[in-house]
Fold:
Amino acid sequence: MSAHERPLRADARRNRELVLDAAGELFAQRGDAVQMDEIAERAGLGVGTLYRHFADKQALLAAIIGRRFEAMTALARAADETEDPWTAFETLLHGYLEAAQADAAFRFALLGPEEPRWSDIAAEKTDFAEITERVVRRAADAGRLRADFCAQDFTLITRGAMANMTGTGDWRRYVALLLDGIRERPGT
Amino acid sequence: MSAHERPLRADARRNRELVLDAAGELFAQRGDAVQMDEIAERAGLGVGTLYRHFADKQALLAAIIGRRFEAMTALARAADETEDPWTAFETLLHGYLEAAQADAAFRFALLGPEEPRWSDIAAEKTDFAEITERVVRRAADAGRLRADFCAQDFTLITRGAMANMTGTGDWRRYVALLLDGIRERPGT
DNA sequence: TAGGAACCGGAGTTCAGGTTCATCTTATGG
DNA sequence: CCATAAGATGAACCTGAACTCCGGTTCCTA
Structure:
């Protein structure tokens, strides 16, 4: 826990990366149903090595999800730099969902019963929430989103979409339906 | 498997019901995370008795979910008897979601990775799909739903809503947003 | 380049939870 | 009221998957 630990030995650093990569790929494919032995094998290491780097399966999973949240934050930041508020919003939403589709572990984590744990971790380590809030606000202020739309609603939408990524349903259609409900309409 | 089995002994029939009730309540509260021993205790029986009536945990869970689907079918049938097509649709949607909120096992089953198993079982044993299809069609034909709305979309909506029932999000707001996207609008 | 700390491997341990089965109990038909 | 088959019981068993542990290996520094 001391702040100044000597840097990892070269092989340890390399192996840590191998573990992260293997776990990332397997978790993304099949959620937390993958076994530690499988991850070790895919990484070309022994299980013991996994446990040298991560206290337990949860910790490894948390590291992977943390990574994904960092990527999501980069995404949000990029979207926020887009000129047009509506484009920014759409870019963020689609980028987020596209990434979520490719990562089962992320989806299961956010949909599972022990949320809000993950969101809290994300909030501690990244600015995802703040940036998203800004993007949403910009779109609402510009009159492109219904006036009462808020960041919470972004979560509602993404959760709903992710729930439709398992199975046969067409989540893009679902998002399209939703967008029709949240876009500001001149006619009303 | 023969069609003519002698009726269950009185105590057996009673116990079967006790098991179903206990399992129904516990599964509804906590999904399939409950243990067989817990169910047995709640029912005031030994585990062995559960296994006399149901081959394994899956079978018991299937029985419970089957029950729920029967209730859902009754709901749909009632809604279909409503005069106004839009009221019928709304009644079905809300009834379904209200019931889903009270039953975690049902939600997890329909959201989990091994869907479409459950829907198939439901289709074999009930008319839920057909009736829902009719209700949806009526609302669409009456011009109260956007013309391209189909029964599949009903599934998309319910899955999305159910995904927002775990955690802190407000799924009713979510449904409201969606309805705005789905309703036929004179203005367009 | 030698000493030793850090690291690795993977067979073996542990444990939780589903499932069984030998034994006891009870409903039911005669 | 008995005989007996159906039913109930729960301690013991089994399985699978997370985790440990220590002998062997590798990197690093002086």
Q: What stands out?
A: Chain B is about 70% helix and 0% strand. The mean pLDDT of chain B is 93.
